[in-house]
Specification:
Elements lengths: L12 E2 L5 H10 L6 H4 L1 H24 E5 L3 E6 L2 E7 L3 E7 L6 E6 L3 E5 L4 H11 L4
Antiparallel strand pairs: 1-2, 2-3, 3-4, 5-6, 6-7
Length: 136
């Protein structure tokens, strides 16, 4: 859940993965096959396949990607390899869309905008963001 290291003001937190979004996509793909009567078998199979593949891709990402909140930056890891570091000082704003069913995390840096699917514990994500990078 959280992995804490001693620091002066804030602990290091690694978010636990959440497989809700990928599972919802995979399960939602199946009823599309029932629409084949109205939209045709080829279209139904194509739509079902695309949504199911997206769900499987997101499940793989949830299993391999880690978000780590440090004292100064949000770090993104794949296994033990640091992929990207986003220093909080460069952040201008952030938001988690659809708070009841969080599916998308947005944050804006000075030079770029980022959208990430919520593949992590959304409550802990919100808590870490509020602690480290209060919204303007």
């Amino acid at each position: 859940m959280t992995s804490a290291a001693s620091s002066t003001s804030t602990q290091i937190v690694e978010l636990t993965p959440s497989y809700k979004l990928p599972l919802i996509l995979i399960i939602a793909a199946l009823p599309l096959l029932l629409l084949q009567k109205w939209i045709g078998l080829a279209i139904a199979l194509t739509a079902c396949s695309i949504i199911a593949l997206l769900g499987l891709f997101l499940m793989f990402q949830a299993a391999t990607i880690r978000l780590v909140f440090t004292e100064t930056a949000l770090d993104i890891y794949r296994s033990e390899t640091l992929l990207r570091r986003f220093p909080y000082q460069d952040w201008q704003n952030w938001r988690i869309f659809w708070s009841k069913v969080p599916i998308l995390f947005y944050f804006k840096e000075v030079k770029s905008i980022h959208f990430l699917p919520v593949l992590f514990d959304p409550k802990m994500l919100q808590t870490c963001l509020e602690q480290r990078c209060p919204r303007i």
